[in-house]
Specification:
heterodimer, A: mainly alpha, two-stranded antiparallel sheet, about 75% helix, B: alpha+beta, Elongation Factor Tu (Ef-tu), domain 3, 4 domains, seven-stranded antiparallel sheet, three-stranded antiparallel sheet
Chain lengths: ~475, ~500
């Protein structure tokens, strides 16, 4: 019985039992209110009475299962690890933990892999029994608590409790909890990044990570991330050099010159540009842009070598290169620059332009001297957001920028970035105890903090700007 | 006076220039978009069709008992195909190397679907059994035009053919400007193949009146006068060492094509097969199913929670610090790089909560958290668009706050919320980076049955295929991109239709 229970997913268990409790309590509550004696005023409608009872009755069950979901399995593991058969005392706690992990994996399989010794079998059986026991306890406890709660609230209901107010309060709480998931997500991100990073920095000093110039995480153990920061900045600069002028001019044209017709064509095209998945951009960079960049670089090399004082190839002309990744990334972030700048430019009050025209300015002079300076904070924010996008962009650099961590100002050499390294470190098997895996989280932390910094500034500027002109 | 004129012209020119910059920027952006889409379209076009070899054989049932297992059938069919090819090209049996080359022209695994069909519905013994077998990826690419093959009829004709030693032949001809031209001025020595009827000769050298070469297919004695006068010159753009198909294989294909044995069919396998290590067999079905399961989980997570959060923030929340904090948080989350959500999934869901790797549930959860801010922002905008009078009317009639919101505001805002949600989900569908970190890159050759099965997703499949070494992966990748974009377009079209609908009801 407990063995069977051990193998049922805890989420299913929670779902089925709470659904049953909900239905039962709701139906009883509804029926109960119908049977209220006539002389007493029904405070709430039958459905609200049902919801009231259901809400209170299911609460203990949900709470218990939530607790089990978070702490149940670790507890079972802890019990098992501290209660291993004799002979395991000489193992370190980490080794014991790994043994328990293996038992846990074997538990999920239909048959225990051959070649396992009887002790392992026994441990797996014990694991199953403990897990079944834990789930059984939770189930019984939840039934008991929900049952008592049911009876207690039923009495309150007959005492004429204000069911509707409480139900609405409950709904409001539920909505608040949903809204709080956004905060929970942020906390989850920060916690997991910090936790794994701290484990990483326990071995590798922070200074070595931030200022070291040699990155060799795949094979060796050199974790100086400076080349990665360099590559990231380099590619982001190339991207913004492409996106800023194009995006800005597109925005200016759309906001100031374009007629209804042009807007109707260009705006959707830009939306398409923004909607194309990054992996598609990566493919484009890989098969079209990177070979093109390489061909041009090779030709330039030939031309330069024809000069008398140059006798070595000047450009690296790698098959995957920073320039290709940067160019395509620039293409990708054009819509981010243009749509936000468009909004900001359109928000500049017409009277400022009229004033400029009245003084004899041409439209372009009005834009250059009046509109753009006024809109500058907003445009800067748009550029900041675009830079933050470029830094966090992953697929294009993974596919087209290369893997070599180096300092090179030559845009046709292959560079690697923070995001590309995170992917290459975590793809494939990732045991969470190796320094190699943990370094990805340290990189992730840097990435998160940097983009957060940019975003916060940009969002604050955008927010202020809106307030000023609305 | 003239200085004013000058400055006016200058300023007018500056104005025109400024406008031109704007137009150029738009043209550049739109042009790049068109280039991108066109590249993918052109690349993908090749992958939606496939060249197949038609084989028909008299089926002999050697055992009247139960149908043999599929593996046996595959090897039996393989023998049939090989023997069939060997009877057409008996000379290939002379040495081991050309025998292997001949066998390599078809892919053995492509026989699996045929074998499956056969085991379901075995033909009666003695009847004619016809089936198609996919040609190998390199041959298929060649037949689709890579490397390029140009064929011209050699109108001058060959006067006589002399067989020298073994397969070497000399062709005597009179006025042969054509061949000489074909051969001249080429730095990388393209291959020239001369086809006369069922005979293919590789040209080794050309002089004014003699072409010497080697017979690749057929017997010289079989060439008649008609063949001689209608010889065809095939020119393969790349030299043999730079391509994956040999001259010999090209010669065989030319003869098979002439015999009408090769046909180009719609590549249905691409939509019904799962991933494979062979590009000619790889399909997108498993990835589509993986993506569908993932989107279901994502929608189940993000839609209700996002809607509830938006309702709270827009309708119920008091103006206090907590509310402001949540709002700032949501705005920031919307701008967090997607790969960070992948790290969250790897650390929290897989490492801490021990959820399975490569499962659509985990991918869906991660993408759900990632899409949540987008959906909240869209839902808030939709709720804000509901006129205040609706709320006031409901409250004025004595409805409670919740009643007013759930019975009157929410139904009006629902289509708008759904529109925003669909657009958010379409975005999540194309997301790759977070999925790479939670193990969705594992090679999965089976179609998943549910969200807990090992699976891969469409964008991840695209990433994996783009890394493939063989050239044939390129069109396959582009085709997978077309499928992905088609899904996204469908979702966005649904959103647009919904939006139109709302606009009409508002009027």
């Amino acid at each position: 019985m407990l063995d069977v229970l051990a193998m049922i997913e805890v989420s299913w268990l929670a779902f089925v039992s709470s659904a049953m409790i909900l239905c039962f309590a709701f139906l009883v509550g509804r029926r109960f209110s119908v049977q209220l004696p006539d002389q007493r005023i029904a405070v709430s409608q039958p459905n609200e009475n049902g919801a009231y009872l259901a809400m209170w009755t299911v609460a203990p069950t949900l709470l218990l299962f939530a607790l089990y979901f978070m702490f149940g399995e670790p507890l079972v593991r802890f019990l098992l690890a501290s209660d291993l058969p004799t002979g395991f005392e000489r193992l370190t706690s980490v080794e014991r933990q790994q043994y328990v992990d293996r038992a846990g994996q074997a538990l999920g399989l239909e048959t225990i892999p051959s070649g396992a010794d009887p002790i392992f079998h026994a441990v797996v059986d014990r694991y199953r029994a403990l897990r079944g026991l834990a789930k059984g306890t939770v189930l019984c406890l939840s039934l008991f608590l929900s049952g008592s709660m049911f009876l207690y609230q039923l009495r309150k209901l007959s005492g004429g409790v204000r069911a509707r107010a409480q139900v609405e309060g409950g709904i409001r709480l539920l909505l608040l909890l949903c809204a709080a998931i956004a905060i929970a997500t942020t906390i989850g991100i920060v916690m997991s990044l910090f936790y794994e990073s701290l484990r990483f920095f326990a071995v590798t000093p922070v200074t070595e990570f931030l200022f070291g110039t040699r990155w060799n995480a795949q094979t060796g153990s050199e974790f100086g991330a400076l080349p990665l920061f360099f590559g990231t900045v380099m590619i982001a600069i190339i991207a913004i050099c492409v996106a800023a002028p194009i995006g800005l001019f597109v925005a200016i044209y759309l906001a100031e010159y374009a007629g209804h017709r042009t807007r109707a064509i260009v705006k959707p095209a830009l939306e398409v540009l923004a909607g194309i998945p990054t992996v598609v951009y990566g493919f484009f960079a890989l098969i079209i842009v990177a070979p093109a960049v390489r061909a041009v670089a090779l030709r330039m090399n030939d031309m330069l070598m024809a000069l008398p004082f140059i006798d070595e190839p000047v450009l690296a002309a790698q098959p995957t290169n920073a320039l290709a990744a940067g160019l395509v990334m620039g293409l990708m972030i054009i819509p981010y620059v243009s749509s936000l700048s468009d909004d900001v430019i359109s928000a500049v009050p017409q009277r400022l332009r009229d004033g400029a025209y009245a003084m004899g300015a041409t439209p372009s002079e009005a834009i250059k001297d009046i509109v753009l300076p006024t809109a500058f904070p907003g445009i800067a924010a748009a550029l900041l957001l675009a830079i933050s996008r470029a830094i966090g962009e992953t697929m294009i650099v993974v596919m087209a920028a290369g893997q070599r961590a180096q300092f090179s100002l030559d845009p046709t050499s292959d560079l690697t970035t923070i995001t590309a390294q995170i992917v290459s470190l975590l793809v494939g098997d990732s045991a969470f105890d190796s320094q190699r895996t943990l370094s990805a989280f340290a990189l992730g932390l840097v990435l998160f903090l940097v983009t957060l910094f940019f975003n916060l500034i940009a969002l604050r500027v955008v927010g202020r700007y809106r307030v000023r002109y609305e | 006076m003239s200085s004013v004129h000058e400055s006016l012209t200058r300023r007018r020119r500056a104005e025109m220039r400024f406008r031109a910059y704007g137009l150029a920027a738009i043209a550049l952006a739109v042009g790049m978009l068109v280039l991108l889409l066109a590249t993918i379209g052109v690349q993908a076009a090749g992958a939606f069709s496939h060249h197949k070899l038609q084989v028909s054989v008299e089926w002999t049932d050697n055992a009247s008992g139960p149908t043999p297992p599929v593996a046996t059938l595959v090897s039996r069919l393989n023998t049939i195909v090989r023997e069939d090819l060997e009877t057409v090209f008996p000379k290939a049996m002379q040495d081991r190397r050309s025998q292997v080359e001949l066998h390599d022209t078809v892919s053995r695994l492509a026989l699996l679907p045929v074998a499956n069909r056969l085991s379901r519905d075995p033909p009666t013994s003695g009847s004619l059994f016809a089936f198609d077998v996919a040609l190998s990826d390199d041959i298929d690419l060649f037949l689709k035009g890579s490397p390029k093959l140009t064929s011209t009829v050699w109108t001058d004709g060959v006067d006589s053919i002399e067989q020298t030693v073994g397969d070497s032949v000399e062709l005597i001809y009179e006025d042969g400007g054509l061949l000489a031209l074909q051969r001249e001025g080429e730095s990388n020595e393209p291959t020239l193949l001369l086809q006369m009827g069922g005979v293919v000769i590789r040209v080794a050298s050309i002089t004014d009146s003699v072409v010497s070469g080697k017979v690749l297919v057929g017997e010289v004695s079989a060439i008649d006068d008609q063949d001689r006068s209608g010889a065809i010159v095939h020119r393969v753009a790349a030299p043999e060492l730079q391509r994956n198909v040999s001259d010999q294989q090209i010669a065989w294909m030319l003869v098979l094509q002439d015999a009408g044995r090769i046909k180009r069919t719609f590549n249905a396998d691409f939509f019904t097969n799962a991933d494979s290590t062979y590009p000619e067999l790889a399909g997108v079905l498993a990835a589509i199913m993986g993506s569908v399961f993932m989107m279901l989980v994502t929608a189940a997570v993000a839609l209700p929670i996002g809607m509830a959060a938006a309702l709270y923030l827009e309708e119920f929340a008091p103006h206090n610090r907590l509310t402001r904090m949540i709002e700032v948080n949501i705005n920031n989350l919307a701008a967090v790089p997607s790969i960070v959500f992948g790290l969250l999934g790897a650390a929290l869901l897989i490492n801490f909560l021990n959820m399975p790797r490569s499962a659509p549930v985990v991918g869906g959860l991660v993408l759900g958290l990632m899409t949540l801010p987008t959906i909240i922002l869209a839902a808030r905008a939709a709720l804000r668009a509901v006129p205040q009078t609706v709320r006031d009317a409901a409250l004025g009639l004595g409805a409670s706050k919740s009643r007013a919101v759930f019975d009157h505001v929410l139904p009006l805002a629902a289509p708008g919320i759904l529109t925003g949600a669909i657009i958010g989900l379409a975005r999540a569908l194309g997301e790759t980076a977070p999925l790479l970190l939670i193990g969705m890159v594992a090679f999965v050759a089976e179609v998943p049955d549910g969200p807990n099965d090992e699976a891969t997703a469409l964008p991840v499949l695209i990433y994996k295929w783009s890394n493939g070494a063989e050239r044939a992966w390129e069109p396959a990748t582009a085709a997978a991109i077309v499928v992905l974009l088609a899904f996204m377009v469908l979702m966005n079209a649904a959103a647009v239709l919904l939006r139109r609908r709302i606009d009409r009801t508002r009027l």
